[in-house]
Amino acid sequence: MTFTAAADEQEFALRVCAGIEELAASNRFSHATPDLVRAILDGIGDLAAGEWAPLNRIGDTEGAHIDEHGKVVLPAGFREAYQAYVEGGWNSLYGPVEYGGQGLPMSLAVCVLETLASSNMALSLNPMLSVGAIAALHHHGSEAQKEKYLHKLVSGEWCGTMNLTEPQAGTDVGALRTSATRIEEGPNSGKYLIKGQKIYITWGEHEVADNIVHLLLARVPDAPAGSRGISLFIVPKYHVSEDGALGARNDLRVVSLEHKLGIKASPTCVMSYGDESQCIGEIVGAENAGLRAMFTMMNDARVHVGTQGLALAERAMQAAKAYAVERVQSARAGSPDKTPVPIIEHPDVRRMVLRMRALVEGGRALVYYGCGQLDRGALGQAEAQARGEVLVPLVKSWCTDMGVEVTSLAVQIHGGMGFIEETGVAQYYRDVRITPIYEGTNGVQAADLVGRKLGMENGGVVKALLAEIAADSSGEPNLAALARDCLEVADWVLGTASTDDKLAASAAFLRMCAVAVVGWQLARQARAAGQGGAPGTVAATKPLVARYFHDHIVPEAAGLKASALMGAGLLYDLDVAALTSA
User: What is the reported pTM?
Assistant: First the structure.
């Protein structure tokens, strides 16, 4: 199944939603010129279509496995495809300049990960995690640790992972039991013996890179209970000398690989540390301060997971559009000509394709708008940084739910052929289903919105965003009304709602807010397209796509207001036994 990067749409979203030209006017991002932006979009599109996409189906059918020697074996071609990515310098786009990175905006680097995830999500998970590891070490590591690890991580010669989850500690990371014992006494010794087991470690073991830098959460002796007693450690697969040379293998191993619904070529590992009591890790920052450092990596990953939802929706939509044009079945209803027509001529298929486009293009607008705000935060604009932080749970949750819906619609458009693996479209549905779950389930994202983000500046950050949407939507009455509905729910959550009521309302409130932001950004795109300068066919199609979103999807979100304000009472009217009875 062929793949083409959505370069024109990406370029337009970068310009209108991320404001890439304004970012390029700063000294820090001055290299992000229009010519460079287009060269990056076209270049990564060529790599994705030529080397990554052809491996996607192979990866799904062969998967990753462990051989008789305990080595993780990946499908043929995966190592070479990753090396082509590294040799092209793609991993360094967003990396800090002082460690070999190009220092380009996050919003531009996200284009690369979007395109790669569209072409081969299982393989794209590797560099996605490395980007997060780079961010965590750059913000929280010592100067010596940065010098030791970041050069190779930025280049992509080494990979990074995130080790949080344990069998008894999923979302509740405060329940983790992995231990870290000081090799030398004193809080500044730096080196610790790590012992414990981690599960669901994406790309936890492989041979596509020369080393793997695991960022791992563990407890030191006498640590406080819960999340206040968590520390962060660097645990490399191979020990690294002070001059950066690789030494002996650390005392860590892969126990097994998970047998998953999708992303089968991505080795999701159960990892064991310290079986021989010789696993050495370096603490990052202070003892018992690891969660703050890990959140840097997690928040970065949440944006990229939202981008994965968008990416797979794009890929599935491409397949569905092609099939709808090629598949001939039945005459057009009501037509005097009884000749069978391509199914794209039937109203319900038209509805599904247009809905897919509105959701996908809306998701891209949301992702790039959020990244543009975070880029401004990196330039020191506090207001933009706060808005970007509010947008993170919206990007992660709405875009992944959208990805599940769009990939399901792609299966539906294929009909019975969509339910058959040989067509390939079912893989996108299976692959995307993990995205609402990992890096904080979408329920966690909704709780974060009402529990943390809404409380920023006593509601001022969220309210300012919603007020701006309402003020800028005079020509879109449905959108303006939705923004006002969101403000009403926000006031209720901040005011009289109990904790249970807030959490019961959180998923509906998040969806309402996300649709409001998406509708706003699509309206901005439609206006910009009408003023000229939109690439390719964007100028002709964008106003209609935005119109569909405002007329059909915005009213759906407005209908969630009643649910949001209902509270938690009904959820607890039945006891557990009655609720779960047959």
Answer: 0.97
